[in-house]
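Ligand-bound model needed. alpha-D-galactopyranose.
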Amino acid sequence: MTANGVHPLVAQARQAFAARFGRPPRFGAGAPGRVNLIGEHTDYNDGFVMPLAIDRYTVIVAAIASDNRSSIFARDLDRVETVDLTALLTAIPGSFANYVLAVVEQFQKRGVPIANLDLLITGNLPRGSGLSSSASLEVAVATLLEQVHAAALPPLPPLDKALLCQVAEQQFVGVPCGIMDMFIISVAQPDTAMLIDCRSLQHELVPFPTPDEAALLIFDTGVERSLRSGEYAKRRQVCAAAAQRLGVPSLRDANIAQVIESPALDDDERRKALHVVSENARVLDAAAALRAGDFARLGELMFQSHGSLRDLYDVSIDELNLLVDLAHAARDRNGDVWGARLTGAGFGGCAIVLCRPEARQRVAAELSEKFTDRFGRAPGVFPAKAVAGAQSVHLV
Ligand code: GLA
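Prediction:
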């Protein structure tokens, strides 16, 4: 993590903890958010993804509680939940704290003698924006618990930590998510994107350009998305049904001709499967383009990915489509932009734009202005760079 990334947040968190709990925190952890460059809705189909961790973080600081209750304080929401973390845990309807409890429960299941803690959560990662704020919180909690319980549990290999958090989210929060978000947030290395094979869980680091070589801009539509709404789970079911009808273990094993020609698929299954199969191929092409520094090719694949998510997978919205259309027009007009697409599950959230570094301000201003004209509110806009995954922060 860079000095201008997580450390100022940790300093603020320490002060805020002392002010709230009347003593300094002893443990700390930080976890980044992520954007996915390409490879959307492929992870739960055993396919390929290529995300990177971004320099926006969730930070947690903590100290052992003075009684047998834990106070879980979300500073940015100004909300607190009080829970006995040593007891049998049950979800608190609608609460941010469920992401904490979900991970604690997984540690309990591994026989770790969990202590009650006072916790303060803060950060600068927008929530509900498709930048994986929930996976970031979960991985931060797991990293903190590793530090607190170092005597009882050797540090988890980053991939094991990612798998623990995925199970936590699936079982406790009830979102049937894939492995991508936790994987990149746990395992990421600075200055690289990661090509992940979600079947074998093997990964390859692919150098990501510095901000001087290419600018990565994030545009937040402000449309909050929740994977709990059911649309995400529905997509997953359609993919599983399509694979079954095609007679393959998962859509990873299908090819385009099979999907187009099979009489077994209904129209919806065919469209969803076409997205997944073509997206897997695009990820591999995009990794080759990134390795070769061919940003024009990478950008073209990003635009194609967006079109597929919009037209076949039905997960885009007007706000995202406008941003991507404007980016496409800028590419055609003067080559300022290389590529753009929605990132994450869709249904809201953020678009990413890869553009020439010298055009960054111009692109940000033009897209924001036209978005504001159309929707009557400005999008959030910020640059991102590729950073390392979650880390313990030693406070004493
Ligand atoms: C969410 C899920 C991921 C992945 C993406 C879509 O972020 O948590 O596992 O499925 O959507 O690519």
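Residues 40-41, 43-44, 177-178, 180-181, 344-345 surround alpha-D-galactopyranose (CB under 6 Å).
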